[in-house]
């Protein structure tokens, strides 16, 4: 299995598609971090140091400015990264005629599938770590903010959550590479599923929210109607891995984020309870944020394990002559 991992790592880091995808993610992330660092410097110069205390460094990864922040880039293009690493993991070997030669050696099938999956995870882990370190160094130089230990802990957990999230898509791509013999078919199926989950499910959530909780006056919706629509939208988001990742990452990298804060604020504002709303605007501690994002994270872990187990069982039970 170690030999397979080394071979797959060499293929991943030397492939043109890997370089293109990572160049896209790095470019968008650095442009967003540049705009965010300028905003942080202006806010600190204007006397916003007290408001930004404990979260100034994290704004490098969440403040959008005019472009996508890192969290949005990973939510949208992280799946594409995982799919690129795994959509031809098995059917490429099959079409080249090398899979049967590998299995004719004293190498078990589970070693082949484990080696390919772990090689993809290692590639994702190293790339994410490099991206976070480079953006953090850029923030230290450009914005002049130093991370606190709590902010570093939040970034470490965010790195692991992102690894699990992209690992789900990696396992799904390997499943497609096992089920479909054609590389083009597996790539199209993976891309279609990514587009459906990343772009159409949010629209579906908004449409269902308006259908289940319609507004009596579209020009003047009440706070209760908006809260019900947002609740339906969040329920639909929990079906999507992208929605789960957005909620978990938002809670981790923003101490003032409480997950369902938008629906909560709408509900509170409907009763004009300003005192209660101001009370809940304080930042959460690291342990509180981790506890708040734990349900979404556990669902992501279960989904990633499910895709890997499905790929493992499907590949292990294929007939030798079909391979």
User: How can the largest sheet be summarized?
Assistant: none
**How are helices and strands ordered from N to C?**
HHHHHHHHHHHHHH
DSSP helix count?
Answer: 14
Structural class: mainly alpha
Total strands: the figure is 0
Count structural domains: 1
Please compute the radius of gyration using only Cα atoms. Answer: 22 Å
In terms of DSSP E residues, the strand content is: under 5%
State the shape: globular
Give the helix level as a range of percent.
over 70%
Please provide a brief summary of the model.
This protein has one domain (2-316). 76% of the residues lie in helices and 0% in strands. It has helices spanning 2-14, 16-45, 59-62, 70-86, 91-96, 99-104, 109-142, 149-179, 183-212, 223-237, 241-253, 261-270, 274-279, 286-316.
């Amino acid at each position: 299995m170690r030999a397979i991992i080394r071979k797959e790592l060499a293929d991943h880091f030397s492939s043109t598609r890997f370089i293109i995808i990572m160049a896209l993610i790095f470019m968008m992330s650095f442009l967003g971090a540049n705009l965010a660092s300028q905003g942080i410097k202006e806010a600190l110069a204007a006397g916003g140091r007290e408001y930004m205390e404990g979260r100034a460094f994290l704004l490098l990864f969440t403040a959008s400015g005019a472009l996508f922040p890192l969290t949005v880039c990973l939510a949208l293009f992280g799946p594409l990264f995982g799919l690129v690493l795994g959509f031809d993991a098995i059917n490429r070997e099959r079409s080249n005629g090398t899979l049967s030669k590998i299995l004719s050696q004293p190498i078990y099938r589970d070693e082949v599938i484990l080696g390919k999956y772990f090689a993809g995870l290692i590639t994702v882990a190293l790339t994410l770590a490099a991206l976070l370190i480079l953006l953090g160094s850029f923030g230290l130089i450009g914005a002049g903010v130093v991370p606190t230990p709590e902010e570093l802990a939040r970034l470490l957990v965010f790195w692991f959550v992102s690894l699990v999230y992209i690992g789900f898509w990696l396992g799904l791509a390997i499943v497609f590479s096992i089920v479909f013999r054609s590389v083009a078919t597996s790539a199209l199926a993976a891309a279609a599923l990514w587009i459906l989950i990343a772009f159409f499910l949010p629209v579906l959530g908004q449409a269902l929210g308006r259908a289940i909780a319609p507004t009596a006056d579209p020009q003047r919706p009440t706070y209760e109607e908006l809260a019900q629509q947002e609740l339906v939208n969040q329920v639909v988001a929990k079906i999507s891995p992208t929605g789960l990742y957005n909620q978990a990452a938002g809670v981790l990298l923003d101490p003032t984020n409480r997950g369902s804060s938008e629906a909560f604020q709408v509900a509170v504002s409907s009763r004009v309870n300003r005192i209660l709303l101001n009370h809940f605007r304080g930042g959460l501690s690291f342990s509180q944020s981790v506890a708040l994002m734990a349900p979404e994270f556990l669902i992501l872990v279960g989904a990633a394990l499910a895709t890997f187990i499905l790929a493992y069982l499907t590949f292990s039970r294929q007939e030798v002559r079909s391979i």
